[in-house]
Amino acid sequence: QSVLTQPPSASGTPGQRVTISCSGSSSNIGNNYVYWYQQLPEAAPKLLIYTNHQRPSGVPDRFSGSKSGTSASLAISGLRSEDEADYYCAAWDDSLSGYVFGSGTKVTVL
Amino acid sequence: EVQLLESGGDLVQPGGSLSLSCAASGFTFSSYAMNWVRQAPGKGLEWVSGISGSGGSTYYADSVKGRFTISRDNSENTLYLQLHSLRVEDTAVYYCARWDAAFFYDSSGYYTGVDYWGLGTLVTVSS
């Protein structure tokens, strides 16, 4: 069972907005930065959002991240077929002294 | 361009040992903490271990503590993971992953995260 809780799936039609939640606690999200990763089928994960809401160069501004208290969320606006992937949130956990991941959310473009 | 290339994955029997390597290029290796993250077939991501830029601080997930050892050679730009007492549940793709700074926390004391990933190497533990 993952320390960070994500919904197992999310879906939308092309052009729609999809939001993925990530729930944690005061020892992880509440006290450290949240990172988001995209994993396309049969590929390595790729950084999507760092330090809660920053986008690396090359990541479209359709992807946005936010954090409030012990929860975070990733929003994908203008959904495209190439956004079909697994999405993971992550944060350092002070109690575990380790980096913890969410269970992952599979996004399907209908 | 940051590149991380893992090697060493293999089929090994339960109770056996294995050594993984990660050759880094495209950045000043000693200026970044490094990690190993694994993904069992069809499952999610699991952080395994991390080491600071100097090698002076190491961290391990409880699931591997006492069995795995992380190390680095900054003169060779290489990260290592020694795996001992392997179990069937250690079967996974093992990714080398760069932390976004030399230390795991920033100047404010808040921990940051992984920014680059390698392509992974498959470790299969089976009799």
In one word, what is the shape of chain B? globular
The helix-strand sequence of chain B is: EEEEEEEEEEE
**In angstroms, what is the radius of gyration of chain A?**
13 Å
Helix amount of chain A = under 10%
Overall pLDDT of chain B: 97
Number of H- or I-type helical stretches of chain A: 0
Q: Compute the number of strand runs of chain B.
A: 11
Total number of strands of chain A: 9
For the record, give the distance between the C-alpha atoms at the N and C termini of chain B, rounded to a whole number.
Answer: 40 Å
Order of helices and strands of chain A: EEEEEEEEE
Summed up:
The complex is a heterodimer of chains A (110) and B (127). Chain A has 110 residues and is an all-beta fold.
Walk me through the structure:
The complex is a heterodimer of chains A (110) and B (127). Chain A has 110 residues and is mainly β. Helices cover 0% and strands 45% of the residues of chain A. Chain A has strands spanning 9-12, 18-23, 35-39, 46-49, 63-68, 71-76, 85-93, 98-101, 105-109. In chain A, the strands form 2 sheets. In chain A, strands 1, 3, 4, 7, 8 and 9 form a 6-stranded mixed β-sheet that branches. A 3-stranded antiparallel β-sheet of chain A has the order 2-6-5, with no helix packed on it. Chain B has no helices and 11 strands. In chain B, the strands form 2 sheets. In chain B, strands 2, 4, 5, 6, 9, 10 and 11 form a 7-stranded mixed β-sheet that branches. The termini of chain B are far apart. The mean pLDDT of chain B is 97. Chains A and B meet through strand 3, strand 7 and strand 8 of A and strand 5 and strand 10 of B.
